[in-house]
Specification:
One of its GO terms (biological process) is pseudouridine synthesis. One of its GO terms (molecular function) is pseudouridine synthase activity. This protein has helices at residues 25-33, 68-78, 111-126, 172-176, 210-217, 256-262, 294-303; strands at 36-42, 46-53, 86-89, 102-108, 132-139, 146-158, 161-167, 181-193, 196-203, 232-235, 238-241, 276-283, 286-289. By secondary structure, the chain is an alpha+beta fold. Strands 1, 2, 3, 4, 5, 6, 7, 8, 9, 12 and 13 form an eleven-stranded mixed β-sheet that branches. A hairpin with a 2-residue loop joins β10 and β11 (238-241). α1 packs across α2. The longest helix has 16 residues, at 111-126. The two termini are 25 Å apart. 35% of the residues are buried.
């Protein structure tokens, strides 16, 4: 069975008023050490660790950049582990440099364990199962209490940056060339308050920024999504999807009432982190969970959304 590590007090830099303060390697390392939520030792395989990654820290980065991967040797020493650690799975793992998701990251010191777990996740998805469960706070509420979002996704150049965009009816050739990938996310509304919602998201496929794009297609972008939320417009309070060419990327726009409930000014909006959290992974040994980070819980309380 997985052994749960007792929770530690949240570090002071996690409070909402300092969401976007940049951390150095030493501070980030201390945060990661205190974020270990599960630890299990396999005598023949090595250690399997799970930590809850904060938003803003990429799992993998370019040489010289601060990332989880770059801190693993130091983290191994801090945790007194004899073997080197590597990443098995984490939030939006397929997006190598994606830093905005928070939540579970699996680390292992044995490549046999890593391969076994990755095969387990792949076969689970092929069997129609959903091994990963996310929580998201959204601006807007889906029309249906539960359902699925299914669409093709691809990378598309928009000006000087590449964007993930939906392709509603991808052709066979584009799928065969892997220019487009069919994606699927199952969702369920857990609670609603004041025009916002707490959603459970279970992706059956893995594509960079899949959850953000799927939420915009539901016309309820994730809170703190400063990349895709601009695609959702409103006329007389009714949301609709804007064409890509008329929806340039910008800081998410929130109305005055919502800003007041969050305790933010328009100038502080760019500091608002993405509210998507990888909360649970189903492993062969059982489910593994990580509670939402302090800023996520603070937002739930501010909006009057039950934690569920």
């Amino acid at each position: 069975m997985l052994r749960e590590v007792p929770p530690v007090s949240p570090p002071s830099h996690s409070v909402p008023c300092r969401w976007r303060r940049l951390l150095g390697p030493k501070e980030t390392l201390r945060l990661l050490e205190g974020s270990v939520v599960h630890r299990e030792d396999f005598p023949s395989l090595g250690a399997l660790l799970a930590l809850s990654k904060p938003p803003g820290l990429p799992i993998l980065g370019r040489p010289g950049d601060l990332s989880l991967d770059s801190l693993l040797p130091a983290l191994r020493r801090r945790l007194s582990l004899s073997a080197e650690l590597h990443v098995v799975k984490g939030p939006a793992r397929c997006a190598m440099s994606h830093r905005e998701y928070s939540g579970l990251v699996l680390l292992s010191s044995c490549y046999h364990t890593t391969k076994k777990l990755q095969q387990f996740f792949t076969s689970a998805r092929r069997r129609g199962q959903y091994p990963a469960t996310y929580r998201a706070i959204t601006v807007g509420v889906p029309a249906e209490v539960e359902g699925e979002v299914s669409t093709g996704l691809c990378w598309q150049q928009q000006g000087d940056r590449a964007m993930v965009v939906p392709v509603p009816d991808p052709g066979r050739r584009s799928l065969a060339r892997k220019d487009v990938k069919n994606t699927l996310t199952r969702y369920r509304v857990l609670s609603v308050a004041g025009g916002c919602a707490l959603l459970q998201l279970q992706p059956r496929t893995a594509f960079p920024e899949q959850l953000q794009v799927h939420l915009t297609l539901l016309l309820c972008p994730a809170l703190g999504d400063h990349k895709h939320s601009s695609r959702v417009g409103r006329v007389l309070g009714v949301p609709f999807c804007l064409p890509l060419e008329t929806a340039p990327t910008h800081t998410q726009v929130l109305d005055e009432e919502l800003l007041s409930r969050l305790g933010l000014s328009p100038r502080q909006l760019h500091r608002l982190p993405l509210h998507i959290h990888l909360q649970e992974l189903v492993l062969p040994e059982g489910p593994l969970c990580a509670p939402p980070p302090p800023y996520f819980l603070h937002t739930l309380h501010s909006l009057g959304l039950p934690e569920h």
